[in-house]
Amino acid sequence: MSSFWGFLAENLETFYSFTGVANATPGHLIMILIGLLFIFLAIRYEFEPMLLIPIGFGMLIGNIPMLNGLQVGIYEEGSVLNILYQGVRQGWYPPLIFLGIGAMTDFTALISNPKLMLVGAAAQFGIFAAYMTALQLGFTPTEAGAIGIIGGADGPTAIFLSNRLAPHLLGAIAVSAYSYMALVPVIQPPFMRLLTTKKERVMRMKRPRQVSQTEKIIFPIAGLLLTTMLVPPALPLLGMLFFGNLLRESGVTKRLADTAKGPLIDTITILLGVTVGASTQATEFLTGNSILIFGLGAFSFVVATVSGILFVKFFNVFLKSENKINPLIGNAGVSAVPDSARISQTLGLEYDPTNYLLMHAMGPNVAGVIGSAVAAGILLSFLG
């Protein structure tokens, strides 16, 4: 009888050793709390719920404590999570996301007012400011380049670049990029108010001209050739972005465009969000570098926002009064589409309920998508 109880006790002890309770560390608990915070912000305040809920729940999945060797964890070769994570590690989730973005994006505002492309370009200064700062803090050039791209507020581009330049920092960079995309309504408005006058906030912009269907069809073809001829490393992202837009604008591939901007992008967003969240396994994620990356990400995002606003104010000096740009759309140069453009609209209506800036803000906003991909290509060309 004693041998039976001894055998039972041994089995119970073995079982306990495999439980999450036995293997939990303070790091696991911290990451689980962060995951719960992401889910709370997504549901309570609707901060990018399509991103934060998959990422937050992925954090819970990735931080269930367990013994190595169970072939369950995301970093264990051959596990289901590891196989799904290959879409991030091998870099094929981001181009598919860009395909969907292209299929759902209307470039009319940018085509009708091409100078707004310069606003999107100016906002990319945040990327290079963060790159130079990261170098000063002791990161290697490739690590600094991967960290800097957070300033573009473009999660897929951040994943694409960090996977190529600094895969060991992928989790921290991806979570940081998506976090700041979700926090656009919190981060940008204070700087928009600080850097503009009341007179500038109520400035009315000239109504965009009508854009023909022919122009809409030519734009993705010309855009592809012009951008990728200059920065070929950005081809996987820009190629899919402009292809998706051609599917939308051609008028003869509606079914393909609907698939790209609907079921396809939704499926990839779920897989990308959950696996990026799961990659924040405490043993791999909670390091001093992760904290620095979050700080640099905030810095680059703020610099990008400020650069866009200040550039508009500077640019207005050279424009005729009827062509001047409302500085409130300068924040939209970051590529958090369409949230940063909505912030321009919201603040504009706050100071003048009849001044609608959304259509104008979409110009630099979609230019920012192109600009962040171009910036990634430039960094890859001399760091990759």
UniProtKB/TrEMBL annotation:
Record-linked InterPro entries: OadB_MmdB
MF-aspect GO terms: lyase activity
Sorted UniProt keywords: Cell membrane, Ion transport, Membrane, Sodium, Sodium transport, Translocase, Transmembrane, Transmembrane helix, Transport
Domain of life, source organism: Bacteria
Main location: membrane
Location in or out of the cell: Cell membrane
A cellular component annotation (GO) from this entry: plasma membrane
Segments crossing the lipid bilayer: 20-43, 50-72, 92-111, 118-139, 169-196, 217-243, 263-279, 291-312, 366-383
Gene Ontology BP, a term: sodium ion transport
Keyword check for Ribosomal protein: no
Membrane topology: Multi-pass membrane protein
NCBIfam families the UniProt entry points to: Na_pump_decarbB
Protein name, entry field: Glutaconyl-CoA decarboxylase subunit beta
Organism: Porphyromonas somerae
